[in-house]
Specification:
Number of strands: 2
Radius of gyration: 19 Å
Order of helices and strands: HHEEHHHHHH
CATH class: Mainly Alpha
Largest sheet: 2 strands, antiparallel
Number of helices: 8
CATH topology: Rhopdopsin 7-helix transmembrane proteins
Strand order of the largest sheet: 1-2
Structural class: mainly alpha
Strand content: under 5%
Length: 248
């Protein structure tokens, strides 16, 4: 096997395993942090830990599925067409990942926005995250892909980009410059992370190639850029939250 072929075969899954490793380190850090912080901060940190652990499990499952059990994308005539263990693992990824995201948004909307900032978001992010998970799974069981995709895209844009405004609002209302910088760092990390997640999804591939009739993002970006972006975003968000709760 040539060196180039060896790199192409192993580099991408290795990058994703590195992402899982980084998330594992963050999970351990916040679990240890949880034991020492004040009671009033524990609900949010607990929700953050659940999100990190859920995404860790989901991301690891998807890496194993994609590179050693299933396939990269199986889209035929604008329909998702995977079966068996491949499908079971793919659905597990959606269910676990979106459950973690839903939990995180619930504690954020409850303990940061509603209690901390006295700003009611009506749990829009929590509800839409749960719906996104449900409709993402539904894509694999319906022939009415177009309208389900419309819902998936709509829900995703709400849960992916509406938080940016909430994070920036939280930064604006922060009581210290250090907290403000931390929330700005979280916002930047969140955007990088979301773009990495979005570009990696088969739904994005379907939208760009089938619905928009365009060539997809450069393969180098998909194969190597998305794990790097998710790793960078995770690190920035982790540092931001660590700064916010370092003295609590």
């Amino acid at each position: 096997m040539m060196i180039g072929e060896f790199v192409d075969l192993l580099l991408e899954p290795i990058l994703w395993l590195i992402v899982s490793g980084i998330i594992t380190i963050l999970a351990i850090f916040f679990i240890l942090k949880y034991r020492k912080i004040e009671e009033e901060a524990k609900p949010f940190i607990f929700g953050l830990i659940l999100f990190i652990c859920c995404f860790l499990i989901a991301r690891t499952i998807e890496t194993i599925r994609r590179y050693w059990i299933g396939s990269y994308y199986d889209i035929i005539d604008s329909h998702f067409s995977i079966t068996g263990l491949n499908l079971a693992l793919r659905l597990s990824y959606y269910i676990i990942a979106w459950s973690g995201i839903t939990i995180f948004y619930y504690v954020f909307e409850t303990h940061i926005m509603k209690e901390g900032m006295q700003k009611n978001t009506w749990y829009i992010l929590t509800i839409f995250s749960a719906l996104e998970g449900i409709f993402s799974c539904f894509l694999y069981f319906t022939s009415a892909t177009d309208w389900v995709m419309f819902c998936v895209i709509g829900f995703f844009f709400v849960v992916a980009f509406f938080p940016v405004f909430l994070f920036l609002y939280t930064a604006k209302m922060a009581i210290s410059r250090r907290q403000r910088v931390a929330w700005i760092g979280i916002t930047i990390g969140f955007l990088i992370f979301v773009l990495g997640v979005m570009a990696d999804l088969p739904e994005a591939y379907l939208v760009v190639t089938e619905y928009m009739g365009l060539e997809y993002f450069p393969p180098v970006f998909i194969h190597y850029g998305t794990p790097i972006m998710q790793a960078m975003g995770t690190v920035l968000m982790g540092i931001g939250f660590a700064v916010l709760y370092e003295n609590i």
